[in-house]
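Q: Entry one of two.
A:
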Amino acid sequence: MSDILMPKATAVWLVDNTSLSFEQIADFCGLHPLEVRGIADGEVARDIRGADPIGNGQLTREELDKAQGNPNYRMKAQVSRHAELLKPAKKAPRYTPVSRRQDRPDAIAWFIRHHPEVTDAQISKILGTTKATIEQVRNRTHWNAANIKPVDPVTLGLVGQLELDALVKKAAEKKAKDDAKKGIVAEDPTLRPATETAYLTEEEQEERDIRASRAEPKAEDVFGSFSGNVDDEDDED
């Protein structure tokens, strides 16, 4: 594949200003010969202004002269400074501060427990960890397995709430599509808003209910207990 900057505009210029064959231009610009023929016939790239590959540093005059003198010769492009500047920069890997790296196993455990639909690759990308570490946490072979507990990655400060919501939604939609292809109907969807996913275990829920029942005041504690009824008290007065 050609790395020529603005290939169609370059092809337009070569068609208009050189005696190169369609095959030579197509090879240099990374186009199909029929597409170059369409440019020459005015059917393709009609409104595109030609771009001089010599002027923008992608082709030397010597290469062009050599190709025009030999129809079998294929021109070699030069590395263009402009093309290098326009190349999309690769996204840097997620950086996790050293102080928070020890929290990643807890976040991994949270994903494994609450969102099994999220793939290892997605977990690895959002937390900046490795698939090997995820497997160790899942299989409880991690060196610190005894101290790992599921904790929401937003609470740990490893990801943002919106980013987490988007990831969970994307993973759930993909799982739903895969299940639909397999004819599986999910009775209890796993997707919930991230704010609701940090639910308690059965033991924790039971303990919280017990504490709540103990803390809830009873009617007699508020109004006091009395043996008679209201009418009796009125009679006494």
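Q: Entry two of two.
A:
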Amino acid sequence: MKKLSILALSAALAVVSCKESKTDMATSTTEQTVAQHTAETFNVNTDSSMVNWTAYHKGGLNPRFGTTKTTGLFSVDNGNLISGSLVSDINSLTTDPTAVDPAITDGKTAADLDMHLKSADFFDVEKYPSVKFDITKVEDLPAGTESKVEGANKQVSGNLTIKDKTVNVTFPAKVEVTNDKVSLVSKFTINRQDWGLAYGAEGDPKDWMISQEVNLGLNIVANK
């Protein structure tokens, strides 16, 4: 029976590892100079915008997913997005109830996971209540670049600050600009260790059970 369980787990891991990714892998580097807000500015519509997140156990098992709300602004010059700042309130972080089954988590619910993620074990919202993203550069998506975002037309770079660590990340995005609205859609993967997001001390087995990859989805709408 034990051997069968191990084989079943191995098979599950193989299926997950072969599963096609639905996000783009962000590239990262050191903190860069933030693009200045000039020309026309558009304020993020919090009710129409959302940041989606998905995290996993090791091997892509047991996905946990949810949302956070965001505020901010974009700057546009000659019909092109040139800068922007987004601030996600981690106090608004909510885990989708369907992502946590109390029947297999010793009675723990999505609300329990919310509290754990906001605790000092992870985001420590009492000290660091928000996550910030400041655009450093927006360029046309290089020719031949494949993206999981349908209609992706831009490559966006920005300083992502989580807790007290800032890392510059670059990812494809679909950006649309009209006279009264700017929209940005992207879905990309980051490595949480780049920001020192770990559960417990270094090498803690509890942290080992959690995948280092976290998927983020930006669905941002800004209006004049």
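A: Comment on entry two: The chain has one domain: 2-223. The helical segments are 2-18, 110-118, 205-208.
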